[in-house]
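Hi F.,

I've been meaning to write this up properly since the lab meeting, where we talked about keeping a consistent format for the predictions we share between groups. The idea is simple: the sequence comes first, exactly as it goes in, then the structure tokens exactly as they come out, then a line or two of notes. No screenshots and no reformatting. I'm using this chain as the first example so we have something concrete to point to.
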Amino acid sequence: MKIVTITGARPQFIKSAMISRAIDKHNAKDGMKIEEYILHTGQHYDKNMNEIMSGMTKPTWQLHCGGIASHSAMMAEMLVGIESALLESFPDYVLVYGDTNSTLAGALAASQLNIPVIHVEAGLRSFNRRMPEEKNRVLTDHLADLLFCPTYKAVENLAREGITEGLFHVGDVMYDAALMFGMIAEEKSQVMTRLGLKSKQFSLCTVHRAENTNDPERLQQIIIALRQIARPDYPVVLPLHPRTAIYLNNYHLRANNPSLHLIEPVDYQDMVMLEKHARVILTDSGGVQKEAYFHRTPCVTLRDETEWVETVEAGWNQIAGCSAEEIIACHDADLNKHEIKEYGDGHAAEKVINAIVALKR
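Output, unedited:
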């Protein structure tokens, strides 16, 4: 069996690493072998953000679609490159992850060639159609033939949209990654020493969503909140996504507080280490919201909604929007928290591969 996996953004590299590991484990046994080929669209083009790819299965195809301003132009370039790769290899399945432009481009290109689509992390909904990610995930789900859901809510979302076949609740592949990379980070990462940080005595922030970066008022409110939270004995660390760095410069927004540390993007091991040891994480990233919970770090979501509603219901995550006053209030709040059971047992990737093999037999 041949699978072409489409990746383009760092969270997808992490998920892909877990699936590739599960494929290797499967291939070590007797039975049907799986050939996996990786196509990297280049959607994330910053060197540090791509550093996680070292040590993983190298891409067979490497596109260069990062840095294209228009979603439509980026999608068009991806479609041409992905279609060419699929015509060359013609796999049994195309596997895509999450909700990026790379995800939708992979699903569209495969669907047009009548190649079955596997969507890992299917069924998530923020119910905000203004978000590019929401459009991408909805369209991908309706193109997919096999849909692997990280939560029971995701299964329910798909059922409401009339998708009831080819669904599997397997848990979250990112939880698999959190368990593995959490241990590796503790052994190898030097980021805490390098940045002079003490465990649970700093906050970590990430901002990259277009709804925040493209809106000067929203981005200004976030920066105002971070300036007020940061102090000499309690810094705030903000690894700058390339898009965010551009808009901060365009809007003439400055840290104006030596305790607010704007740093270059960090590799995944360092990011995991920072997530584990922060007292609070502030983010507009869906993946970081989950990782915050996996590492049992309270989270403040810098959006008006989240697709990861379980983290909010369990008290680990608060929706702050973009008001500086609300962000600060959420950051300082102390809520009752409880465990979330449905993210799985750390073997989601193996369950994905086992299901695919069982169906192919």
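Notes:
The chain has a mean pLDDT of 94.
DSSP finds 16 helices and 13 strands in the chain.

If this format works for you, I'll send the rest the same way.

G.
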